[in-house]
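Question (not urgent): is this output format expected?
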Amino acid sequence: MAAAASSTDRPGALDITRRLTEICGPPFARFAGPADEVAGRPARWVAVPGGPRAAAEVLRLAARHDLTVVPRGAGTKIDWGAAPDRVDIMLDTGRLAGIGHEPVGAPTAEVGAGTPLRAVQATLDRTGQRLALDAPSPGATLGGVLAAAEAGPLRHRHGSPCDQLVRVRYLDADGELVDAGGGVAGLELARLLCGSQGALGVLVSATLRVQAVPAGRIWVSRPVWTPLEVHDLVRTVLAARLDPAAVELDLPAGPGARPRQGSRAAAMAAHPSMSGRAGAGRLVVLLEGGPADVAERADRLVTLLGGGAGVSHSAPQWWRRYPFGPGDTALRIEVPIADLHAAVYALRDAAGGPVPVRGSAGLGVVHAALPGAMAPDRVASILAAVRGVLLARQGRCVVVSAPAAVRRAVDLWGELAGLARLRAAKEHLDPHRRLAPGRLPGGL
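Got this back:
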């Protein structure tokens, strides 16, 4: 870092503050406050540029003074992932917002990175359209969803938000505006930015596919008691070819009454990890389409699932919500769907009891929560055990967020097959490590 900018109480720091104010406007540049931090790392300045040109000027200023820049949207996932090595300028994207003017019924929409996702959906809904995005974080911006590669239940049918990209506009580390898309190479670059936490570029806008809002939606729900039962039911759902929009699972950790069991249910419950078992969970399948077609498919699915399955015209309360809360250690497990039950059993075995698990059972991507008060070495041992089981099943377990003590003590990522490619991308796109350094796996 430049000597003149080594402290916010030195003249050089005041010069940077003055220049940021000139770029962004008096209300939109300031010294950072206590709440301006990234995964526990405090920022020094906050800049809220009014458009792409101003954002580019912020990046050029940072380059001249050897300052780091970390983008922030609504801040709903600012504590996800690794803490950056430094946060000199927090670049708030709140004014990089808006929805491009497209003809009604157009197949795509261009959306500013700082636009709240719910505002995009509300605008599109007035024309009978939607983005097939339902990220769980309340208030999340589109840029934040893409930067964190966050997806909700609809990813089962429509893919992740990154899969729906047509192109992106982003600023590189030198402040140059880049348009990525319109071809295989462009799309590959655009999707590389997804999940990069702002460490490869600062998203300005994204163009995504839109679709008509489905006329009918029905949620088919069935109680479940063990991970192995979930495995069997998911196989049934997928084999039925009913074109579900989402297949979601909620396995709580709280106590619950246990129903009368047949021999198979009793055998499943006899697994050692069911000691101190959870109460009834739920497997919920969302069906979308024409009202008559959806109703017919729902009737067929209720018959297939049996066991108290029923229908609802509204989502369950836990739909699009994570099982973890502030201060918890949040895990994401990704595993082939045939091995999801093995991953959940491994987690319960390692933790010594039921752990809340929720997510897309139809894709083998779920989240779990460990108590924030759990000792870091205990979390590390649980991670080691679960990752050992997943390694043989081509799965992985990532720490999404965690208390600072846990974050320092554990490997957040585990094995990462694409690390060499990610390192090459960082060296190419940000050779001077000015964009969120240390935020990516491998300390990149």
